[in-house]
Amino acid sequence: MTISVEIRERLGDFQLDAKFASSGRLTALFGPSGSGKSSVINFIAGLIKASDGKAAVDGRVLFDSDKGINVPRHKRRIGYVFQEARLFPHLSVRQNLAYGRWFAPAEDRSMGSKGVIDLLGLGQILDRMPNLLSGGEKQRVAIGRALLSSPKLLLMDEPLASLDQARKSEILPYIERLRDETKVPIIYVSHSVAEVARLATDIVVMSNGLVIASGRTGEILQRSDLMPVEEQGEAGSVLEMAVVSFDEKYGITLLRSAVGEIRVPGRLSAIGKTIKLRVRARDVLVASQRPRGLSAQNLLEGKISEINRHGPLVDVKIDCAGTAIMSRITYQSSASLKLGVGMAVFAIVKTASIDAGSNEGARFHHAKMSGNRPFTD
Amino acid sequence: MTWLELSPEEWNAVYLSLKVAFWAMLASLPLGIVVALVLARGRFWGKSILNGIVHLPLVMPPVVTGYLLLLTFGRRAPLGAFLADFGIVFSFRWTGAALACGIMGFPLMVRAIRLSIEAVDRKLEAAAGTLGANPAWVLLTITLPLTLPGIVAGMILSFAKAMGEFGATITFVSNIPGETQTLPSLIYTFTQVPGGDWGALRLTLISIAVSMIALMASEILARRVGRRMDLE
To answer: Which of A3, A187, A198, A288 is the most exposed place for a label (fewest CB within 10 A)?
Structure first.
């Protein structure tokens, strides 16, 4: 399943010129507000036209300005989950769900109502009217409604943006299940690094109407120059690690991979499972020699493969047995340690997020490493 | 309370008024919805002219409207004669009274429905489109149901206007007992004859009662519809 999009269009003072192709399970369109992300998916859905552009899903052309093809939106078979849910206020939850299903051709009804209701946990609220639902429930119904139209592609426009943190963590596991358990590819618009790191398999980065980078999530997240300024420290590495053992006495789980060993507090997952560990660049310190008398236990050995300076800060890319670990430190510390490419160093990991959802269904753990808050970068 | 008892003639006028108002409202509804849709959503040259024509009956003296109807649908008028060949006669019939009342109430009905259509969130229509509904289905399943409060309000306004219509009706179809003598026409007749005061008063009370019931019914209906789809 490949999605390819090309759009050149003037929208007022704004020039949109975006082109990308993706075959990922969940492709994040990532970038700051006003970078043209929503316009791109509105174009894919047929809500806006382009004077010059092309859009195709799995070889089926939806729009081609050269050939004069413009499939009307109701024939595109593209599900759209809007930021504000857009449930029909005069229909109950059950009727909203049925509305999506009603127009799907019978032979294409890949999704059963029961399956979707179970997947999204909607059983308890079927007979309610939309105005009596919480924000999170509305968004779940909107996702279910879009799924029941048996779309070839699902577009999600910042579906969590209007929700508070508690509601966000309520929805996230459902989106993960969607990504892992259904066959529908997803394009997910977001400006949140945390959401994208957790959900996306692929990322397309947009800025000022242009696509400035695209690729697998792991590669893109290492590049802090692509992150919004206020979130540059959010860039980092995603490590896949096996759960080795759990220490009952200290309550510590030991993780291991080729990179080395990492200890995280709490019981995380069944022993033997593989989990995704997100390590932010700002949570990694660099030592030029093995430190002693340090409370942080997570030391990874590696070689510096790249150093990029951004004003007073530098991003240090450390190659640990083939996996890149990103560290963000001040230019001053980098200079005083005389860091250089090829130098053998130790990466000290202070904190990490464990994205367990990717491999074991719907649970999400956020764990902090044996804390070393006094260290700042 | 014998003075409150209605004579057959008076009952006839009450019944005829209800019948005329009901049909005026019902017959103008489909056209009212179409015109409201065109005015709310259409973009074309001459839209303000159409808007002006629709509102004319509201600002012209009713007698002018009645006279124009006479010129158009009278037996000797070209259109009236043509329709008469098909057995459709308006002049001096209750159907003519319904036509006059429908036209007088039309601007009120269109206004109410148009405002309601303009209040419909077009984003919901776009959402329905992405779910596979073509424009006709979107209209039937999203736009019109969401316009329902306005449609109900427009129907009530049209009905109430028809119950009270006098000038255009009496000009177009005269004041024939049993055929075109509606409540206002009969009240007018009573005021023109000596000793008709009690009759006029009785019918006035009935007129007030009918109007009050219509207004309250519309309030209740609108509130119920509004509550059912309390917008997000």
So the answer is: A288
